[in-house]
Design brief:
The complex is a heterodimer of chains A (259) and B (319). Chain A is an all-alpha fold. Helix content of chain A is 78%, strand content 0%. Chain B is of the alpha/beta class. Chain B contains 10 helices and 15 strands. In chain B, the strands form 3 sheets. Chain B has a 6-stranded mixed β-sheet with strand order 6-7-8-3-9-10, sandwiched between helices. Chain B is elongated and about 80 Å long. The chains are: A mainly alpha (259), B alpha/beta (319). Chains A and B meet through helix 1 and helix 5 of A and strand 6, helix 2 and helix 4 of B.
């Protein structure tokens, strides 16, 4: 197994840290502290629900913003600044570089998410509620967010291999939004009698990643458990989908003439 | 017979230009030559001649339309080839959030050195390029010249057998240029092959065993610098002190230039004896007669004029 992707990944993580990307954690911490204080005063009895809802939604949004905006610039920035030139003159295959960049951003997102989860736990602790066994489902919801981010990062990276950051952002965001509502889009198609529309909505449903399945925020906020089968299914789905997208990205990037 | 260090075999590169109606423009046309092991080889040509395109093709940054190349017998498509080469891009830009030491350590990791070896090498090569005191400074605070030095350090850090340098003197002050020349000399003494592009012809004349001249994407000539220029027509330079009160013949006076108390005139080789005869008649004191050998620069400038360098690209087809 080549060590190259790991070397590139660690440097990508270092870049994110030095570029102060993790400063968003300060905003998250402030949000959680503010929410905990406010909720403690106005929502007696439903503090848990509100804090978990707010915390997980914030973790998801902060992660998505990072995954999309950093992901779409990962390769483009290297090509534009020509830092790639001296790097690819080393014994590095292009796919190794790409996988390394992907793994580096994923590592950044995981560290970011882990710290935000700690912030959420601290906020829950502040509102005076002892932790119970069912709180483990919060971790499952966080895990789903990480899987979602892994998919979004792969998509951003794929688009950044052949288009500008602005277009890549639009494409990635478009696919994400379509993916969140893909089940609804298919249901709309099923209601019509137009066979072409029906086919189109089905194609969209099967082609676009189904992000709806990764949203377990409402479930855990109400204290319900997440079935193990869903965890397993989502893991396999995300790994396979991200793998295929990375393969496609490698194929595009490997054949590309660098300007 | 030993394997050449670099073999370039019919490399051709076409680029699509235009947004709606793409047409192909040829930036490199059937480039073929080879560089022997241990040579310092200069790759000369005006801006837009195709030098950087050739470098990028050799590094696998872009792909040829046709043709191929080998470095020490390995195809440029072979990833193992990259273990034997070092590359300094033109106007290098590196990760500016890293220090010079971190940058070199990062690149050294791809050569499978242990942590101790990396530390030793990085320190040694920082010193070699004059960055010993700037090793822990972030690259975003580096000047252009310092970046160039960092670029040279990363290119030679892993003791490559063949070193490719795209305009290595660019952005350096005279001291820096001297240091780069010393590094190239040192590489040659160690038996390494250095292939560098430049438009600073004095550097090429001073350093190169052989040069290739490129213009308009086409190879114009390969050979030792003096071979390259010797194909040009020679002239003869006469240096003399004119006799006071004896005016020079009109034919010579019109070409003469005054240098202090002496006069210099350049005549075609075929007119030399006639010119000397005329000078003797007007009692001039001949100080020296020497052949004028065109410099590489003269050759180069004539080449640019011929090729109309600024509009070199050749359209190869329309779509």
């Amino acid at each position: 197994m080549s060590a190259t992707p790991g070397i590139v990944a660690i440097n990508t993580f270092r870049e994110a840290v030095r570029d102060r990307v993790l400063y968003n954690l300060v905003f998250f911490a402030l949000l959680m502290i503010g929410a905990a204080i406010l909720v403690g005063q106005i929502s007696i009895g439903i503090e848990r629900l509100v804090i978990i809802n707010l915390g997980l939604t914030a973790i998801s949004i902060f992660g998505l913003v990072m995954a999309i905006f950093i992901g779409v610039g990962l390769v483009y920035k290297e090509m534009e600044k020509r830092t790639l030139y001296s790097l690819l003159a080393k014994p590095i295959r292009r796919w190794e570089f790409l996988v390394g960049k992907y793994a580096g951003l994923l590592l950044t997102l995981c560290v970011n998410t882990a710290f935000m989860t700690l912030g959420l736990a601290a906020a829950l602790f502040y509102v005076g509620r002892p932790f119970v066994r069912s709180d483990a489902s919060i971790l499952a919801a966080v895990y789903f967010i990480v899987l979602e981010l892994a998919l979004v990062t792969a998509l951003g990276l794929f688009f950044s291999c052949f288009s500008s950051p602005m277009l890549s952002t639009l494409f990635t965001l478009g696919i994400y939004i379509t993916g969140v509502f893909s089940k609804d889009i298919r249901d709309v198609g099923e209601l019509t009698n137009v066979s072409a529309l029906k086919t189109l909505t089905r194609v969209v449903y099967y082609l676009v990643p189904n992000f709806h399945n990764f949203n377990a925020i409402a479930v855990v906020a109400h204290g319900d458990a997440i079935p193990f089968s869903l965890i397993w299914q989502n893991t396999v789905y995300a790994v396979l989908y991200a793998g295929v997208v990375l393969l496609a990205a490698s194929a595009v990037f490997s054949g590309r003439n660098l300007k | 017979m030993s394997t050449p260090a670099i073999e370039i075999l019919g490399l051709t590169k076409d680029y699509p230009v235009g947004f709606w109606r793409k047409r192909m423009v040829r930036s490199l046309d059937n480039l073929t030559f080879q560089v022997e092991e241990g040579e310092v080889f200069g790759f000369l040509g005006p801006n837009g001649a195709g030098k950087t395109t050739t470098m990028k093709l050799l590094m696998g940054l872009i792909y040829p339309t046709s043709g191929t190349a080998r470095v020490r017998g390995r195809s440029i498509d072979d990833i193992q080839m990259h273990r034997e080469i070092g590359y300094l891009p033109e106007q290098p830009y590196f990760y500016d959030y890293l220090t010079a030491r971190e940058l070199l350590d990062y690149y050294a990791r791809f050569s499978d050195y242990s942590a101790a070896e990396r530390r030793e090498r990085v320190t040694r090569f920082l010193g070699r390029v004059g960055l010993a005191d700037a090793g822990d400074v972030q690259l975003r605070k580096f000047s252009k010249g310092m970046l160039q030095r960092a670029g040279i350090a990363q290119a030679i850090l892993h003791d490559p057998k063949v070193i490719f340098m795209d305009e290595p003197m660019s952005g350096l002050d005279p001291v820096g240029r001297r240091e780069v020349r010393d590094i190239i000399h040192e590489m040659k003494q160690q038996g390494r092959t250095v292939f560098f592009s430049t438009h600073i012809l004095s550097d090429a004349e001073m350093l190169c065993d052989r040069v290739a001249v490129l213009a308009g994407g086409k190879l114009q000539g390969v050979g030792a610098p003096n071979e390259i220029v010797s194909i040009e027509v020679h002239a003869m330079e006469i240096l003399f002190e004119a006799h006071e009160g004896r005016p020079l013949p009109a034919g010579l006076a019109s070409h003469a230039t005054q240098i202090g108390g002496r006069t210099r005139v350049e005549v075609p080789e075929s007119d030399l004896y006639q010119a000397l005869h005329e000078l003797r008649n007007c009692e001039a004191r001949i100080l020296s007669v020497s052949p004028v050998r065109p410099t590489l620069e003269d050759y180069f400038l004539r080449l640019i004029g011929r090729e109309k360098a600024n509009s070199h690209a050749v359209e190869v087809n329309s779509r």
